[in-house]
Design goal:
single chain; 6 strands; Ubiquitin-like (UB roll); 42% helix; alpha+beta; 19% strand; four-stranded mixed β-sheet
Length: 202
């Protein structure tokens, strides 16, 4: 996992900087500090622990449920920063965003951004957000979302049969969007789809 003797805890007053990154998407989730004890707990439990001036030893997600399962811990070349590749169980930020850096942290991954927007709509589908939303309407209506994915899939098939690459691209985008919506209604997100694909690639 990581050899803690490689880390220079004294350089920053007994702690190292930890950059938490989603191991599946590459998104930077948050930056925090950890001392030797926090990293020992992270290694032992496979759950990220940090050191905070306010909280002391801090098990990320112990209260909120937004834990971070450790995939790997890697020191930088100077031994005072650790890259923590994790699988988050929910948002990393106290603002309920997946990343403390907002959507920009998702980089060029438009699918991840779309999935997060759909997830946010799912969290507010019971009227907590007054703004109208097509996504929220679909999440509320099972028949509507299933009908839409059928319609969009048929349109994609027709565009491909016609050899219309431009229309096929647009229809494929519609199919992907509606697929993410129907999956989210089942409590499934893009990360689970990525994991399924990763297993097939082995």
């Amino acid at each position: 996992m990581i050899d803690l003797s490689m880390l220079d805890f004294e350089k920053r007053g007994g702690v190292v900087v930890v950059v938490a990154q989603d191991a599946r998407t590459g998104a930077v989730l948050m930056v925090a500090h950890a001392d030797r004890q926090a990293l020992e707990h992270s290694i032992a439990t496979k759950q990220m622990h940090y050191r905070s001036r306010r909280r002391g030893l801090w098990h990320k997600g112990a209260t909120s449920g937004n834990t971070q399962r450790v995939v790997s811990l890697t020191p930088d070349c100077d031994g005072d920063v650790v890259l923590a590749r994790v699988i988050p169980a929910g948002p990393a930020c106290h603002t309920n965003e997946m990343s403390c850096f907002g959507q920009v942290a998702l980089g060029a991954d438009s699918l991840a951004r779309l999935d997060q927007v759909i997830a946010q709509r799912a969290r507010t589908k019971d009227g907590l957000d007054p703004k109208p939303s097509h996504t929220r309407d679909l999440l509320k209506d099972r028949n509507k979302r299933l009908k839409k994915i059928g319609e969009e899939s048929a349109e994609l098939v027709m565009a491909c049969a016609d050899g219309d690459s431009e229309r096929a691209t647009e229809e494929a985008a519609d199919v992907i969007y509606h697929t993410l919506v129907v999956l989210r209604a089942l409590g499934v997100g893009l990360d689970e789809v990525r994991e399924a694909l990763a297993k097939r690639a082995k």
